[in-house]
Design brief:
The protein is mainly alpha-helical. The protein contains 5 helices and 2 strands.
Length: 150
C-alpha cells in the first residue's frame, strides 16, 4: 500500500464519523510520519506495514473521539496538543471538577476566620509593647508643647 492509498482509506473510514478538524489533524500527522520515515530510508510500503491498518487506526480515532465527546458533555475541558503524538491521535482531555458554591463559601469563611485569628493573636502579643510606646509619644509631645509654650 502507498502513502496516498493509506491516507485515502483513513479519510474514507473517518468521514462522517468524526469532525473534519479531527480528520485533518490525523491526516496531517500521518503525512508527516510518512515523510519522517521516508527520510530515514523506509519505503512507503514498509511504513504502511509498520503503522498497520488504516481502518483499525480510524476505529481507534472514532472511539477516542466518542469518549472525548462524552467528557466534554460532562462539563469537562478539552485541550488540543499542538505537537502530534507518535501513536496518532493528538487530543487529550484534562478533567476538571467544580466545587459547589456552598463549599466555596464555607472554605472562604474558614480562611477569613484564620486570618482574623492570626491578626488578633499578633495584636495581643504586640499590645504590651504598643501601649507604652504610644504613651511615651503622647507624653513627649505634651512636654514639647509645654516647653515651647512657656
Amino acid at each position: 500500500m502507498t502513502k496516498q492509498e493509506f491516507i485515502d482509506k483513513l479519510k474514507s473510514a473517518l468521514n462522517g464519523q468524526v469532525p473534519d478538524g479531527v480528520i485533518w489533524e490525523n491526516v496531517r500527522f500521518y503525512e508527516q510520519y510518512f515523510e519522517e520515515q521516508r527520510a530515514k530510508g523506509l519505503s512507503e510500503e514498509a511504513v504502511c506495514d509498520q503503522i498497520g491498518s488504516p481502518k483499525l487506526i480510524a476505529r481507534s480515532i472514532i472511539e477516542a473521539e466518542k469518549h472525548e465527546t462524552e467528557f466534554i458533555n460532562d462539563d469537562r475541558t478539552e485541550f488540543v496538543d499542538e505537537e502530534p503524538h507518535p501513536r496518532g491521535n493528538t487530543h487529550f482531555s484534562v478533567h476538571t471538577r467544580h466545587l459547589p458554591g456552598w463549599l466555596v463559601l464555607v472554605i472562604g469563611i474558614l480562611i477569613l476566620m484564620l486570618v482574623l485569628r492570626l491578626v488578633f493573636t499578633a495584636f495581643r502579643f504586640l499590645l504590651p509593647v504598643i501601649v507604652p510606646v504610644v504613651l511615651v509619644i503622647i507624653a513627649y509631645r505634651a512636654i514639647k508643647r509645654f516647653i515651647s509654650g512657656a
